[in-house]
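Predict the structure of 4-Hydroxybutyryl-CoA synthetase (AMP-forming).
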Amino acid sequence: MTVLQEYERIHEELRKEGYINSQYPPNPSERLWNRKVMTMSRDELEKLKSFRLKRIVKWAWENVPFYRNYWKSKGFEPDQIRDWKDVIKIPILRKDELRKDLSANPPFGSIMVQDLAKRIRFVGATSGSTGLPTFQGWGALELDYFEEAQARYLWTFAEVKPTTVYANYLNMSGFYSWGPPLVETAMWRCGATAIAGGGETYFSWKNRHNLIFRLWKVDVMATTPWLHRLIGEEARAEGWESPFKVLLLHGGAAAENTKKKLFQVHPNARLAISVWGTTDGHMAVEVPGHEGQLVIWEDMEIFDIVDPKTDEPASQGERGELVATLLNHFTMPLIRYSLGDYVKNEFITEPDEKYGITHARFVEPIPGRVEWMFKVKGKLLLPIYVEDAVNEIPETTGMFNVLIYGNEMDKLRIRVETRRTLVDSSYDSSARETLAERIGLNKDDVEIEWVEPGKTVWTGYKLQVFLDQRKK
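Done. Here is the predicted structure for 4-Hydroxybutyryl-CoA synthetase (AMP-forming).
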């Protein structure tokens, strides 16, 4: 059997066995998109993960020169994997190694299965915010499974069903996998009407986008927490109410106070769901009723968490660097690939009460990337903690930039938007006190640069919460 034939056989098997739901849209009365898979017993899930991990490792060893050479250099061989918990034996792959391979073997590097390279249906790319962008090739199987993963939470949590109008205000350009053709295709599986608006064009076409929201009476809106807030503020200023019933929060963990502000500026919203993901195809979604707990589709991937200094597994309850293995990406496998996010090594495996979903949940939100951690007076901070505090300051828009000028800083320097035309010493002092108390500093350890609305730094539809001013 050729590599292509085996790839197509696995794809057919996944659909036939029901891991990819091919009967869509389901009956609207069905609460879960794929009940069979979403409510599998823990024992079934454990066996499935072990089988799929061994399969993808064997596949990569036999078909991907990059992995075979990289693993040999680290003393790893596939027969070391007995079950899914042995994933920690696999050498961690970080972006620097991937970039070296991509530079030496453009455009995809030797990590791509060459027999499948000319059959890819979609090219994805990271933003390149931390260096050279990395590219991914998605074939028919990978696209199909990712659309399945999207449909699970859209149908089940956000109630995206026939007659629902969904607006995707994520990035519609730059090879971004969560825009067309993936998320919109998941909408069609749900039977919904999809509007591919594109968050990066909101600033230049603001009036047009606001008109679309009103005319189409958009039910479910997907964009970053910051653009959600901005659109709501714009609506209030113009004297109309946004129609959104469900807010899908992408692009960064939403702080508790951010959600409260979103419900204030979007009075028709009854639900705000944090959706974490990467361009590569990793994802975890907040379960309604379990705020801050993000469910992982365990038939798709395995997460493990390591100490970024030692690469050793983090202890239970400790925070560390998130590492992930995609179990069904055969065209360009990503096995034990560091995602660079910072998260607690603690998961809940008890089914939730509302849906009965058996897949594991992170015990808390994913607060940000490891490189976003910074210290002020020896205290470790992340932008999400600062965001929560900024939202407690009156007359601000919630938009801010943390200015990082050193690895060990003696002050928190932050740019904050305020609606006040005049910032007096009393307002500034009160704001610094609020920030300091919320994040565990003294008032004199906080320095605020006040700017008018619209003067913070954004990258497309994302607020640039972390401005690194350190010398490289």
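The chain has two domains: 1-366, 374-468.
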